[in-house]
Each structure stands twice: as C-alpha cells, then as structure tokens.
Automatic annotation (TrEMBL):
Protein name per its UniProtKB record: Mitochondrial phosphate carrier protein like
Keyword Lipid metabolism: no
Any one GO cellular component localisation term in the record: mitochondrial inner membrane
Membrane topology, as annotated: Multi-pass membrane protein
Originating species: Verticillium longisporum (Verticillium dahliae var. longisporum)
Similarity section: Belongs to the mitochondrial carrier (TC 2.A.29) family.
Main location: mitochondrion
Pfam families, sorted: Mito_carr
Length: 240
C-alpha cells in the first residue's frame, strides 16, 4: 500500500497532490508516471515562485530606482532611494500600491516557468532512466555516473529551453514595450504572439539553448556528485 503524500504546508496544494495520487491506485508506470513528474514540477514551480515573487518585485524596484541604479549594485545596498532594504520595501509597497502589487507579473512568469520546469524534470528522469537501463548504475564508476547526470541534464536543459522559448520571447517583449491603455496581460500576450509568429517566437533560441543547456547540465552533475560525496546514496530516481 502506498504511503500518504508528504504535506507541503499548504492545504490547497496538499489537496491537489492527494487527489492526483488517489486518481490511479498502485505504482504508476508509463505515461501516468511521467504525468506525475510533470505535475510535481508544475506544483513545485508554482509554490516556489508564488512565495518568492514578492521578494523579486521588491528587489527589482530597488535596483531600477534611477538614483540607485546610477550608483550600481553596491550603491543600491548602501543607500537605496526606493527603500532601505527588504522589510522597508515591503512596507512601502503595501502602503502605496496594495498587496496586489507584490504579484505584478506573476501570471506571465508562470506562463514561462511552468512548462520550463515540467520539461526539465520529466526529460531528465526519462533520459536517466534510459541510460541506467542500458548501463546499470551499479556497474558504473563515480566518473561515469557524473557523465550520465551531465548528459541527462544537458538534454533536459535543451528540451526545457525549446519548450519555454516562445513564452520567454513574449515576456521579453512585454517588459520592453507598453500596452495600450486598459489592455490586460492576456490580450497583450495574444497580440504579441500574433505579431511574432512561429519563427519570431523562437528568435534567440541558439543562445538560450547554450545557456540553459549548460546551466542545467552543471546543476544535475553537481547535484549527483555532492549527493555522493555526502554519502546520500539513497535516491528518488526512477532508475537505480
């Protein structure tokens, strides 16, 4: 019998997780297994970005304040003009703009990050599973296992970059251009998508493939090596 899902600390998130876990009894396989990987990535992305978006908004305000920006990052920490730090920024924004301002742009961020995170983890798991099926982990040296993590992470990063590239391009356009008076985020996204077309949506993809692929490969390789160095041999990987 499967154990109960671990609590995330949020009743609403726990309800979604429990409902998904109860939908198909027993050990999931095939599409159902990877659908759960994708769901886990989507929920994890939503929760973490939901928790930290207010912090990012405050950070951006402090960085982009004209007087602060002209003094550079060090100056912004020494003598910011928007606020004197995180707590001061929270207080000022709450009083002047209301709590809704903390989540300005949250929807567009998820529009990019959810498919990115889902693709990254699902592809990593699938590639690692395929490699370890052909070459059992027990037969591989530490260096070879690092290479597996590196290769799996690289492929996962490339896939995630491709999947999220259109959203990343559209969000860059939103940040650089002003919408018409009263125009909402969704209508702006639709307008920009129409203007860009399929080809325009993937502008800059080679550069992003290099950046995201390298970053993700390094993350998973370091993760595996540090885990091994700390003696954390147990794993939640699907292939052992």
């Amino acid at each position: 019998m499967a154990s109960a899902p671990t609590s995330t600390g949020s009743a609403k998130v726990d309800a979604v997780v429990q409902k998904a876990a109860a939908a198909v009894p027993g050990t999931p396989t095939g599409f159902d297994l990877y659908a759960r990987f994708a769901l886990a990535g989507a929920i994890g992305c939503s929760v973490t970005h939901g928790a930290l978006t207010p912090v990012d908004v405050i950070k951006t305000r402090i960085q982009l304040d004209p007087a602060t920006y002209n003094r550079g990052m060090i100056g912004s920490f020494k003598q910011p003009t928007y606020a004197n730090g995180l707590i001061g920024g929270f207080t000022k924004m709450a009083k002047q703009e209301g709590l809704g301002a903390f989540y300005a742009g949250f929807g567009p961020i998820l529009f990019k990050q959810i498919p990115y995170t889902m693709a990254k983890f699902v592809v990593y798991e699938k590639v690692a599973e395929a490699i370890f099926r052909a070459y059992p982990k027990e037969t591989l040296s530490s260096g070879q296992q690092t290479q597996v993590n590196l290769a799996s992470g690289l492929i996962a990063g490339l896939a995630a970059a491709v999947v999220s590239q259109p959203a990343d391009t559209m969000l860059s356009k939103i940040n650089k251009t002003k919408g018409a008076p009263g125009q909402g985020t969704v209508s702006r996204l639709i307008q920009i998508a129409g203007e860009l077309g399929v080809r325009g949506s993937f502008a800059g993809l080679p550069t992003r493939l290099f950046m995201v692929g390298t970053l993700t490969a390094g993350q998973f390789a370091l993760y595996g090596d540090i885990k091994a160095a700390l003696g954390a041999r147990g794993s939640v990987e699907i292939a052992k």
